[in-house]
């Protein structure tokens, strides 16, 4: 897992000490195994207004560990959830559709916005993503400028305009 900040932000410290306090909340969890695509996605997101903390995980199992506070992320079990998950579908270890299904099935993570990033234009795959609870599906454009604009539009909408669910509030049954 790597952590990316659009701008350098000072680490919080505990009162009277210099040790880092709780981890900074994550704005975006990027789930993508292809290092080239990770860079293509991160560059436009880094240029958005404000310092946005972006965590990158490289496979579906790591994504689930992050969201559920397991394995290497056990210490972050009570940490705030990311404001947005950008999810690739073709992932090693656990497929993106299974990641989506697991996140939606858990009461703590079920309301986190998830945007599926796909290279394919398969109507069945899109339907399945929406049936499993994706908030949006974005086909990754082939042309670099279009890709850049698409990633900035996704970031602007979900981080600046969208009003996400309040933390620790249960939905009305």
Give the amount of beta strand, in percent.
Answer: 15-25%
SSE succession: EEHEHEHEHEH
Return residue spans where pLDDT drops below 50 for at least 5 consecutive residues: 3-22
Based on CA atoms alone, the radius of gyration comes out at 16 Å
Gap between N and C termini, in Å? Answer: 36 Å
Biggest sheet details = 6 strands, mixed
- What structural category arises from helix and sheet content? alpha/beta
According to CATH, what is the class? Alpha Beta
Total number of helical segments? 5
Task: Give the % helix.
Answer: 25-40%
Level-2 CATH architecture:
3-Layer(aba) Sandwich
How many distinct beta strands?
Answer: 6
CATH superfamily: Response regulator
- Overall tally of structural domains: 1
- Give the neighbour order of strands across the main sheet: 1-3-2-4-5-6
User: What's the CATH topology name?
Assistant: Rossmann fold
Shape descriptor reads globular
Mean pLDDT: 83
Descriptive report:
The protein has 173 residues and is α/β, with parallel strands linked by helices. It has a single domain, classed as Response regulator (Rossmann fold). Helix content is 34%, strand content 16%. It has a 6-stranded mixed β-sheet, with helices on both faces. Helix 1 links the parallel strand 2 and strand 3. Helix 1 crosses helix 5 and helix 2 runs parallel beside helix 3. The longest helix has 18 residues. The N and C termini lie far apart (36 Å).
